Amino acid sequence: MSLTVWDRPEAGPAPGPDATAGGPPDAGGRGTRPGQGSRRRRVIVAAAVVLAFLLLVAGVLALRSRSGNSDPLDPRNPGSDGAQAVARVLDDRGVAVHIARSQADLRGLDAVDADTTVVITRPDALSAETAAATWEIVRDARRVVLVEPRRFVLESLGLPVSPAGAGAPTRSQRAGCVIAGVSAGDEISAVGSAYTSPRDDAGRCFTFEGVSALVRLAPEASGGPEVVVLGAGEILSNGEVTRHDNAGVALRLLGQGDRLVWYIPSYLDVSPQDTTPESELPRALGPLTLLLLVALLATMLWRGRRFGPLVTEPLPAVVRAIETTQSRGRLYRRARDTERAGAILRAAAVRRLALYLGLRAEVPPGPVAEAAARATGRPLADVDALLAGRPPADEDEMIALANDLTTLEKEVHRP
């Protein structure tokens, strides 16, 4: 058995004997290896893609640092879910606002004293270990405000407060209490969470059906500073602060002293042995995400490579459409599948008639039969039986069906 490989001749004279003897390249640079140019192009394209990716990441980071943080209730977030407005107003009124985004930042601040208010806007990122460490740091504060904490955080801090589900169903709720920062006539919106406390001396504000959106614990009840559990965290956001008395309540709750520590706990402070039940994010989440992006980029470069320019080749044979149709028909005939062949004939006729009669191509046979009956004057039952009747039982019935369908199409096309 022999295999003959046919190749198209190149233009120009055949190479001489010196062409394989290591002769010098000609002026056109044909002496370079065929794969060197394509390999160099792939390296250049890969380097360009990597450089563009790095520039994109740098641009995103620069834009983020310029526009501020995007985390909810962050004092540097100017978006609708941020709290930049409250932080700036407090700063303009003489309250020094210090931001701590990690346990290390919180420890690095000046000592928290009796003239300091601490607000924790993402307490669910605390674990049992970090909650205990935070409590030791803020023990001497004047007031600690916990924004929508969950049961795990409250139990970790040893506070006699329990979540009670969602807040009031209305968009606003009146205080009905008097504590430092809240008067009885204050009205807030966006009550998100509600709490209860078994202590009789606990202050309860914005109460609805026995649950409150704000619970205040005195120092003797909390075992440390005054604690305010705020279930309406959205009153601090830029999008809600201008509604009702949200601004006044937020400013008075956080502006009791001359100094405000805005603590935003980080999941990275949680050790692998001390994860939080609400979110067990691993410490390596950031590096793993970056590694995944790099792997995705490498896969795109690998699978999208090209070894050279596209080459057009003539088809080995040209098959006419009628030959394909006849071959398919012979296959159906050999298989004696008259039912399937008849279904194909009817489907093609219905599609052509629908297009000619101004109907959609995917319309069922029923509407096509009605339109064809009106166009030809035939009885609707006859046309419907022709387009959607029983399948042909043998070749003779299939041939008759094909002829009848052709006749129907001619009558429809007849002017």
Structure description:
- This protein has a seven-stranded mixed β-sheet.
- The protein has 415 residues and is of the alpha/beta class.
- The longest helix has 34 residues, at 34-67.
- It has three domains: 40-68; 70-287, no CATH class; 324-413, no CATH class.
- Helix content is 41%, strand content 13%.
- The radius of gyration is 39 Å and the shape is elongated.
Short summary:
By secondary structure, the chain is an alpha/beta fold.
Low-confidence stretches: 1-32
- Strand element count: 11
Specify the biggest β-sheet.
7 strands, mixed
How would you describe the shape?
A: elongated
**What strand line-up does the widest sheet have?**
1-11-2-3-10-9-8
Helical proportion, percent range: 40-55%
Structural class: alpha/beta
Strand-residue proportion: 5-15%
Mean pLDDT: 81
The topology string of helices and strands comes to HHEHEHEHEEEEEEHEHEHHHHHH
Number of helices: 13
Radius of gyration: 39 Å
Number of domains: 3
**How far is the N terminus from the C terminus?**
63 Å
